[in-house]
Fold this sequence. Notes:
Layout: E1 3-7, H1 11-22, E2 26-31, E3 42-45, E4 48-51, H2 61-70, H3 75-78, E5 81-83, E6 88-91, E7 97-100, H4 105-116, H5 120-144, E8 163-165, E9 171-173, H6 180-188, H7 191-203, H8 217-225, E10 228-230, H9 235-247, E11 251-254, E12 258-264, E13 267-273, E14 278-280, E15 283-286, E16 327-336, E17 346-349, H10 354-362, E18 368-371, E19 377-380, E20 389-392, E21 405-414, H11 425-438, H12 446-449, E22 450-456, H13 458-465, E23 496-498, H14 509-525
Parallel strand pairs: 1-2, 1-15, 2-11, 6-17, 15-23
Antiparallel strand pairs: 3-4, 5-10, 6-7, 8-9, 12-13, 13-14, 16-21, 16-22, 17-20, 18-19, 20-21
Helix pairs in contact: 1-9, 1-14, 2-14, 4-5, 5-6, 5-8, 6-7
Amino acid sequence: MARIAVIGAGMGAMAAAARLAATGHRVVVHERGPAHGGAVGRLERDGFAFDTGPGLLHLPAVYRDLFVKTGKETLEQCVELVQVDPAGRHVFADGTDVLLPGASRAGVLQALDAAFGPGASERWSGLERRAREVWDATRRPLLEEPLADDARALHDDPYPAPARRAPLGLRRRGRAPAGLAEAARRELRDPRLAAVLESHALGHGLDPRAAPASAAVLAYVAQTFGTWYVRGGMRALADALYERCRARGVEFVFGSEVVGVVEKDGRAAGVELADGAQVQADLVVAGVAPARLRSVPGAVPEPGADGGPGTDSGPGTDSAAGSGGSGRFTVFLALRGARPEGAAHRTVVHAADRDAELAAVFGGGARRRGRGGPGGAQAVRRPCDRPTLTVLRPDDPATRPDSGHEAVTLTATVAPHGPVDWAEAAAAGRYADALTEAAEAAIPGLRDRVLWRVVHTPCDTAEATGAPGGAVPGPALAGGGGRYLRPGNLTRLPGLYLAGGWAHPGGGLPHAGMSGALVAGLIVEGADWRGSR
């Protein structure tokens, strides 16, 4: 069987490694850092524990399949997976406060009507039906199949135009919306209800103003398949996958930074390490952003080249697409006082000024010139003081020293390092103060309960994952002329494959897991493999 070098120990890379090792290949993972998991990290201090990456999981079936295909123990035998119910609470500047059930669609519709007025549930249901059409049309090509060599079929937005009333009681298709924000405004007709929809895109680092209407599928997936939490924190999922890799014989080499791919006779023949050493391999799987590696010119197609996959214009730019070049600003709070019974696991505190927030994250508003970070002078933005804020309060004894304390995580989508200078500690501290104050809309008296806090900026993300500017990749979407697609898993250099959030099908835990499945399928079954049936 083949010798396979895997670059990085993130979730996509480990998913590929486990599947390949289970088929008999010899797999060695080279990780630049001291531990596995990539962005799925863990912060522990004084009996408190926090997830430093994703705090929740969608589409757990991706990992159920991974564990079934790679060993005897199922996912549920390795971790305790629980559905979050209620799925979320939404708090608005005008005082509107709505709790959405996680396991009852009827309950969701009832809550929407109660919060936003009669007819809200009908409008939401109509949009949900159209999002389901997007899911049905794109589930296989965007999640379960390798990206086609000619991906132009995915350049058009599959979101259907809503029907409109015509004379004589007939119903005709209207004009398709230009993007997600237009669909939300036109079809939901309430800025608060639109914000609920758009928060799913924003949470994935997407600009609702520019994202195709097909991004409504993100809300559909969350509502239809549920939101899930792993007891002990999402890091437990990374630990379980790491142990599954080890059980299958995968070798991990930590502190081994790969800087390039070695080519010999027109194909990948190994990896080059930071110290200049070369490690031979028959095949190479890159589970990191391709921009981090010195690879063969042309191995990874440029955006939209030859009708192939497109990517965003990169972190630190004012991408019109906003397709995944944003970062995350996170505040970990150790609190005195017990978690109130019935408190929502996830609360979204919505921005009072959405336009100002989106301009601060993605560009499009006023800017000043100044010092930007690694690239020198560039357009510099001021962070929005009251952004859309996600508050996570897991009811999990493993996250706190005792029942008289609570661990809370605050997260906002922000510009990556570059457009904002996140390396300035004082500025990061002031922004953490602003987020903590804003979070009092979800947790009254929050600031008086704080024992200590730890702040993570996009600079910390860059240090942990190596992603330029600390950017977090978004999921692949159809539409937008291909700007929301990622490079395919099969590159133009024979023997070199791409996995993880910077490759097809994009960022997020389920997408990363699927990238590993796609890479393994291409290696085991051959380049013509079109996914499991």
